[in-house]
Every structure is written in C-alpha cells, then in structure tokens.
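for the writeup, i need someone to sanity check this before i put it in the appendix. the sequnce is what the collaborator sent (i think, or maybe the updated version? ugh). structure was predicted straight from it, no edits. if anything looks off just tell me and ill rerun, i have time this weekend
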Amino acid sequence: MALKKFKPTTSSQRFKIISAFDDITAEKPEKSLLAPIRKSGGRNNQGKMTMRYIGGGHKQAYRMIDFKREKEGIPALVKTIEYDPNRTARIAMVCYADGEKRYIIAPNGLKVGQEINSGKGVSPDLGNTLYLSEIPYGTIIHNIELRPGQGAKMARSAGSYAQLMSRDGKYAVLKMPSGETRLILQSCKATIGMVSNIDHSLEVSGKAGRSRWLGTRPRTRAVVMNPVDHPMGGGEGRATGGHPRSRKGIPSKGYKTRSKKNPSNNYIIERRKK
C-alpha cells in the first residue's frame, strides 16, 4: 500500500499525496456483481435540498459485497484485488469451489491465488471468517457482526481493526477501533486480519476538484454566515463565532449526544477515549 507524492509543478500538485494503486490487479469489475446507484444530489422526493454540500461526482456502480460469508465449509480462491469507489478499503473477488463469484472486503496482505474459508473448525488464517467463540485471544479481526447472521457491521473501513481480548460467559470482549471495549455474542462472526489500504488516512487530495469528482460540493464556513443562517454567524469584521456549535445549536467539541437510556449501554465495558 504505497503512497505517491507529486513534484510541485503546479499549485494543485504541490501537496498532492494519493495511493499508488500498486495493489490493484484488475481494471474492470465483475459485471455480474454490479448494481446501479441512483444519486439524489441531496434532494428529497419533492426535489427540495435536504442535505447541503452534495451533488455532482463521477458516475459509479455499486459492488455487491458479501458481508455475511455464509458459504461455510466451501473454500474460495482469491482471483483479483480491485478498487471500489464506494468505500475506502480495497475489495477482493473470490471464486468458490462451486463456481460462484463474490466480492469481499480485502484484508491487508491478501494475495491473488490465496485460499480462504469460513465457518466452524476453520483455521484462524488471514481472510478466513470464524465465529468469535473459536478465534484465539489477541487476534486482530475486522468485519464484525453485531448480531448473529446479520452480516458485518463494524471495522470495515480502510486500516481499521478490532482485537479479541477475552471471553465472558456467552459474550466475547472486543477492543473496538475507537478504543471502546464492549461485549459481543460469541455466535457472531468476524474475519481475521486488518482491513486493506492502511495508508488511506495519509492521502491529500491537493485540489478542490478532486472533492467534486467524489460528489462533494464546496462547504460554507459557519462564521461567514449571517445570524439568521447559523448561531456562529454575524458580528463585525472577523468574529470568531463564540462556542463551536451546529446549525441547530448543539455544541460540538466534547458535548455528549448519546442517550443515557441507549439499550447497548449494557454491553459497553469501557467508553472510547476522548
């Protein structure tokens, strides 16, 4: 996962740092695993803008990812490592022994030609999906289910991972990417390894146009708005805007918005670090 830094021949190239894409082995995706995406441009069914700063962007197709890994006991061979415009991680196309092709989130270090498997009694090797009850302590995992059979919900973005700390009754104790320690049922599945494209957080777009390609429109800072538009707007000259808050007045930078009655509070042993 190398990064590519450009010489400052133009102002947009000066700070540009992007992925070298040296891990990609296929240029075109598998057509049978694609689905169309309809872009809303931030508008609702009446055509009114309900989400700001969304619009444009390159046309994309959705890659259908297998988050459940329910084909247990059937080995699969990794055919390609591909780029996915809908997520930060790389994806891998695998071909099962029965001929079926599927996309999975590629773990860091997964190679073409490697064999992966899932289910009970599977060895805890890179890319294999196991139940939390069978994974050794201290193992780095990703694509973690919250409920049995639901499909992976946690640790799916580039470079993220969790760690299996211990077991407590019917629960496994996991340290999450945020630093939070929580309980998850041992009957849930997880995949061995860390998610690929670990250098994604170090990338620098270099110019505003690259954000437009991704469907992001220019964002107006709150302090330059008028008082009618934002609580931090108005004032004479360059006013700081007072305490940072959202457009609806909810304070940022440390204000807790999580409900005290959230049912999942019972499963959280230690909250994430501030």
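The two ends are 29 Å apart (CA to CA). The longest strand covers residues 76-82.
thx in advance!!
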